[in-house]
């Protein structure tokens, strides 16, 4: 493809690919030079050109180099637009999900439900790129724009027509997950996280709203979960832009949630659509998964599925890896659940999900990630202490921080909690304390396979460790 086909400012030079890392540049590439959190990509322009970059997308006036300059006030955005043209075509039915919690669960449910309805489907997000017969891990929710577009195009080549993907606030802010035309986009909820990066709740919210303000095209449909503090703000923006809107939740107009009660194997939910109420037997526990399955159902309706098919598929969804997953039952008879709650709101949601199943005590084990939002630590301690019977504060990916300092910051919100250094020791302690009738919740790591201490990732899987300790 010629550069002129990717931008009106381009010459007739042939383009062979795109890179954002000079070390990956090959002859014929377009190099994106971005200022990042750690490095300044502009410092690598010279090397990228030496390696054969034919064009560089960067700010105006940066350096002099022997390749075509595509100057932009927002190089990441311009680069994403050009790369999107290069890597296409993409699957026809693509939807995106944003929100603080529930993105992974919702996209995974979309993938499952489409498959049940006979569509070839995939999801992209924290769990990696998932199809019906494969899961390729990518390390981040959205690794980078080139990987994202490459994955989307690869799925199309595999014959996949339906894809649901997660848009994290980092990904939205850095234009890491866009360029693929969207049919619909969903909002799950909004609460504190990532303030280390966004600094204020307003900036964090605005990053998420790019999905509805910019990524979703004029003819796209917004699906909004209605029962969050921020739902009305999202609905107002969607209406202001004149987008089609589907609402789901207790106040939902498209799918309304009525009575919901826990059953031994999951929950029974009354849901109303088009004036008719149906009883859904969801084979998953937890109010939060009830919310996510409704949001996923909204996305199914938005991409043309009929309610009858969607309803049948909702009743057959399987658990999502690391989200309220029962790892083992201890010798004394206490079930141990693994969950990915790593924000105050998610901790509340996970504890509330288990509460109806607890006969005696709920024991919550968790920590907080190092090099991440410090301000969420004490609130996490506070909500865990309020809603659990016993709290054990331990470590979760301390990264470059001192684990004892992180624990101390959590303990400010939970002064009566038991502090245990080292996650395995904490899980052992919880198992030792748990009696028949109790439930243990191991929160924060979900599907993760490692504990990141310093720069080293040590193999660690909460479920596996629980099974070892319970044996
Ligand atoms: C803070 C943050 O989000 N950083 C992400 C961002 O990096 P950055 O642009 O700031 O990169 P940088 O290292 O400062 O480098 C700047 C530029 O120089 C380039 N470079 C750098 C070094 C070099 O030798 N040569 C070179 O060309 C880099 O490719 C980059 O374009 O863009 C990179 C890819 O384009 C990401 O890999 C990186 O994720 C880091 C590793 C990370 O930990 N991110 C987490 C916080 C994250 O994004 N998480 C969210 C999930 C959150 C959630 O779900 O709750 C996610 O979407 O995964
Ligand atoms: N709808 C929801 N409302 C509140 N909490 C939720 C909801 N969905 C999930 N959670 C909580 O958040 C945790 C993470 O869920 P999930 O992985 O689906 O979210 P995510 O938005 O993809 O998270 P991340 O930002 O890490 O990618 C769950 O384990 C659960 O504790
Ligand atoms: N996507 C989230 C995951 C947090 C999971 C938790 N285990 C941690 O390491 O903080 C983040 O990068 O902030
Ligand atoms: Mg996720």
From TrEMBL:
Motif Meso-diaminopimelate recognition motif, residue numbers: 396-399
**HAMAP family tied to this protein:** MurE (MF_00208)
Copy the pathway line from the protein's UniProt record.
Cell wall biogenesis; peptidoglycan biosynthesis
What does the UniProt function comment say about this protein?
Answer: Catalyzes the addition of meso-diaminopimelic acid to the nucleotide precursor UDP-N-acetylmuramoyl-L-alanyl-D-glutamate (UMAG) in the biosynthesis of bacterial cell-wall peptidoglycan.
Q: Which gene encodes it?
A: murE
* Residues binding UDP-N-acetyl-alpha-D-muramoyl-L-alanyl-D-glutamate: 141-142, 168, 174, 176
* InterPro entries, A to Z: Mur_ligase_C (IPR004101), Mur_ligase_cen (IPR013221), Mur_ligase_N (IPR000713), UDP-N-AcMur-Glu-dNH2Pim_ligase (IPR005761)
Quote the PTM field. Carboxylation is probably crucial for Mg(2+) binding and, consequently, for the gamma-phosphate positioning of ATP.
Q: What is its EC number?
A: 6.3.2.13
Task: Give the location in the cell.
Answer: Cytoplasm
Quote the protein name from its UniProt record: UDP-N-acetylmuramoyl-L-alanyl-D-glutamate--2,6-diaminopimelate ligase
Q: Which residues form the Mur ligase C-terminal domain?
A: 322-446
What cofactor does this chain's UniProt record say it requires?
A: Mg(2+)
| Highest taxon of the lineage | Bacteria
Record carries keyword rRNA-binding: no
| Record keywords | ATP-binding, Cell cycle, Cell division, Cell shape, Cell wall biogenesis/degradation, Cytoplasm, Ligase, Magnesium, Nucleotide-binding, Peptidoglycan synthesis
Q: Where is the Mur ligase central domain?
A: 97-299
Q: Where is the Mur ligase N-terminal catalytic domain?
A: 15-87
Binding of meso-2,6-diaminopimelate occurs at 372, 396-399, 444, 448
**Can you tell me which family this protein belongs to?**
Belongs to the MurCDEF family. MurE subfamily.
- At which residues is N6-carboxylysine found? 208
> What is an example of a GO molecular function annotated in this UniProt entry?
UDP-N-acetylmuramoylalanyl-D-glutamate-2,6-diaminopimelate ligase activity
Q: Which parts of the sequence bind ATP?
A: 99-105
State the reactions this protein catalyses. UDP-N-acetyl-alpha-D-muramoyl-L-alanyl-D-glutamate + meso-2,6-diaminopimelate + ATP = UDP-N-acetyl-alpha-D-muramoyl-L-alanyl-gamma-D-glutamyl-meso-2,6-diaminopimelate + ADP + phosphate + H(+)
